[in-house]
Write a structure and sequence with these properties.
Strands 5, 6, 7, 8, 9, 10, 11, 12 and 13 form a 9-stranded mixed beta sheet that branches. This protein is α/β, with parallel strands linked by helices. The protein has 22 helices and 13 strands.
Amino acid sequence: MTPKAPRRLREDLIAQVCLEAYGGVRRDGRLADRALDFVLRQRKQLYSSERRAVAERVYALLRRQRLVDFLVEKGWKGFAELAVSKQDLVRLGVARLLEGDTADEVADGLSFKGDDARRLRHVFDARVKLEKLSSLERFAIEASLPDFAAQKLVEEVGDEAMEAAEAMNVRGPLFGRVNTLRATREQVLTALTREGVEVHETALSPLGVRLETRTNVYSLEAFKQGLFEVQDEGSQLLGMLVDAPPTKVVDACAGAGGKTLQLAAQMKNRGELFAFDVDARRLDELRERTRRADAHNVRVRALTDDDEALAPVSALVGQAHRVLIDAPCSGSGTFRRKPDGRYRLTEASLAEHVALQKRLLERFSPLVRPGGLLVYGTCSFFRDENEAVVEDFLGRHPEYRLLPAERSLGAPLAGQTCREGMLRLFPHRHGTDAFFGAILERKAPAAPRGG
């Protein structure tokens, strides 16, 4: 049987929907994923290929927004006088050029003719004006990062900064984590292959699979049966630091529960795993995921600042063998997946994140029993949220000490992924989102001296 030719994309409709979604982000301040979800749910006439095209083009523009704005403002004559919708259409076109589409393809798809088509073909001429800027200003624009974030990235990776920025400005791969309560990695690979998904083992995580086929992962039978969860490979390594025993374990910032389920599998469904979070809505999602994953040892608790809601935390003081604080953070490590987050980030909001991270360590560290472990992690590349927070905590808590991440990861894997004894992942080096993780041990009291 001759395979059907792919449907021709309706470029005019795609452009219209892109404008609606992008406008929701840039003009109305919506989160990108929510703006896209809202618009695409209204546009039921779109083919699946067109829906993907909308999402990819909007995200591509958001990842390159500062550079696109510079090019159109410096290289598109009369840009400032254009109507807002036309400005955004031009931005979408230039972002497609940066993604590798030809000027003819873009002009044809956006119905740019005459002067518009000519300006599109020459918009990159404005790059010469970048050379007049300082090296940091130029890097910040080319990387599409706030100036202060660009500076911090340079401080973190030095000469690799542009390579790191480029890795954050492309679509991230789709990773899954095998649910070892239900299947082995080999079984998941086989099941996904049978469903027509091209899939491979991950390079770093022994629990991971990388899905190469673009598909709606939530519609796959292997997912519905709870054989695997969607989880970045870097997040899986952070979860591995916990090495949770089947006793009392706390996930202090559980959210929707990706790492909670990983810990439940580590514990082989034994012991008690307490999942806390302040977002009750996300905890509802976690409850649903525990049922699908067949995780029975999870105790879900929503927290507020009142004494009654904090009672489950107080009841665990000095009892937990492991406490994971996967702290709310700037999210800078996930900019390739949530590119709009970089434009909401300020030095003031970064300072607020750091203050919250320190409060969370103060709140949950007392739960760790002597000899137990406190694992602190973020999805940030900022040292302010990572090593600096750990150093501050250890400086005020001599009862804790840093353990090398090799303890949980093993020497070969730690050699690839750690710095200064702590997990330190970057997209350009490891292919994962940027992650940080540190293992802190609560020292056991010294044995009394003999008489």
